Amino acid sequence: MPQKKQQTQAKTVMAQILLFQPTIEASDEKVQNFLDSVQKLPKGIRHLLSASAGENQSLKHKGFTHGVILLFEDATSLHEAMQQPAYLKLSHTLQGISDHTIMFEQSVVIDVPVIEIPSPQQKQATNQKSKNAAPGQRKRNATIAPPSPELSEWQQLARAIRQKRVTHIDQRLVRIVCDQLSVDEQEVIPSASLVEDLNADSLDLVELFMTFEEVFKLEIPDDHLELLMEIGAIQAYLELQGVLGEENKM
Questions:
Q1: Where do the Stress-response A/B barrel domain residues begin and end (predicted)?
Q2: Could you report the per-residue pLDDT of 50-77, keeping only the tens digit for each?
Q3: Which residue, of 23, 33, 203, 249, has the fewest CB within 10 Å?
């Protein structure tokens, strides 16, 4: 039986297109790591529809050998995303591997799937049909119901962080936050928000998380950053990663 063709509709979105020239010092591995990190951006930035990156195939690239294409819901979403830690961290990385960049933004039209939502009448008809089915048929219908979706890795991490009861902040974490944000130790408490209580701006957040990565020898994926906006959450996260705890004291 032929499958029903998925219906689509045109949607106008905002595209941000970036071309860059890698520096002579930037190794192929560093450039590839940057391109790979772009692919993970949709998990870390709200309203980002898709992200792609790769080599510029044009024969007239004039040294701009690589590019990035980001699609956002609209212009407002794009400009909000440019202030989010995941985006700023990526921009900081790009500055370290490129000599020159060209960026432009424009509206584009893409095809998106149409999700059909059954009307109340359709739902009622389906329920009535199920009630009228023979008992054996109803049982068979029940067995083919799709299973409940399992929690994603991100959701599992978010739940694990929430379930951690953090009452004490490791002194190494306190020192890093105090040094990076110029705050007093008394302010670095589990419930403290980096932005609302410790007044960290976007650049502060990027530098803070990069310091965590350097000091604790780990990589914090971009989609994890939004989970780490409070001191207690950072402590819990670093404990879950196995880099904080009695056995990891420096």
A1: 14-112
A2: 899 999 999 888 899 999 999 998 999 8
A3: 249
